[in-house]
Amino acid sequence: MSDLVELLSTLVGFPSLCGTPNGAIIDWIEARLLAAGARVQRIPGEVPDRFSLFAIIGPEAPGGIILSAHADVVPVAGQDWSSDPFILTRRGDRLYGRGSSDMKGFLACMLDAVQRVVTHPIPLSRPLYLAISHDEELGCLGVRSLLQALSEGPDRAIQGCIVGEPTQMQVALAHKGKTAFTIACHGVAAHSANPGQGLNAITLAGSMIRAVSELQEKIKTSERPDGRFAMPFSTVQIGLVTGGTALNIVPDHCVLSAEMRLLPGYEPGPYLDWLRDAGARAVADLGGGRVEIEVTNAYPGLDMEPGGVLCATVLREAGRNHTTTIDFGTEAGLFREILSLDCVVCGPGSIDRAHKADEYITEAELEEGARFVDAIVARLR
């Protein structure tokens, strides 16, 4: 257990913030895996200085399992931490540090298990795959190039994928998808002493803010409720408003940054079209201007049926009797969509502690995660 905590401490010590170069932590993980005899593929991301890793331990044979984790973490700026977020700090049974729950705890369990695989007297008869991605916290960005590389490689007949996001070891088979988009409102600038000579983009944006609220009500009444989720319908909300130049200038621009969290099976297209129609009406009411809606990022939801081999295996080894759903998104939907793999989400720690000051994982949770990973690996022998 002390080795596992030390491993987590090392991982937390890399300030691998999303949206920044991640070569340092990837170099360290890659070197560790290579030293253990893994076959490692380093996959560049879509932007410079970002990398993902795909490692194979064991024989080239069908029926292997992927363990998936992301190595990036969210920023700590503006948060009131009781200790340095990038130094793993023990207080009682709690291990504090950015990413300890989300999700370097599971990543540590993955890397720790590799050491025992190579020293175990019984070799694997099926391969263990490790997928380690970047910039997951920006909308599952980094895993896309990794999955593209895998889809273009040999057909390995992989049994399935376990994404180790912090679920307190509950076995999740479903989560919502996400579509992030902007609503750019364009007007005409003018001196504020003569506002009638311009078109106020913020006024236009106000109409679109109301339209988003109306769309939410439409969604609530038109979708079939899915009681598996705490919010049993798709949601849409505006998270950021940016507009104007100065108080004495009629603003010619205002951008609303918004997102949808969509129930599995629902697509964003019809809702975005509804907003575009609302934008056309708002422009007509104002007597001019322009509204543009652009999708900036999207990833699919996950909706696996219970009863598959992977689900049964994970339930058994996690010590659970039933499956659940989660409200946050993961890379599992992309593994399912691009590689057609059975996927579950199950890992140590709690999402309720993620993205906050004094994020932590307990030593008992970390140990439970390690036992789980070891049990999954044992099934590959």
TrEMBL record:
InterPro entries: AcOrn-deacetyl, ArgE/DapE_CS, Bact_exopeptidase_dim_dom, Peptidase_M20, Peptidase_M20_dimer, Peptidase_M20A
Peptidase M20 dimerisation domain: residues covered: 174-268
UniProt keywords, alphabetically: Amino-acid biosynthesis, Arginine biosynthesis, Cobalt, Cytoplasm, Hydrolase, Metal-binding, Zinc
Residues forming coiled coils: none
Residue stretches spanning the membrane: none
Names of required cofactors: Zn(2+)
Listed NCBIfam families: AcOrn-deacetyl, PRK07522.1
Family the UniProt entry places it in: Belongs to the peptidase M20A family. ArgE subfamily.
Protein name: Acetylornithine deacetylase ArgE
Species for this entry: Asaia krungthepensis NRIC 0535
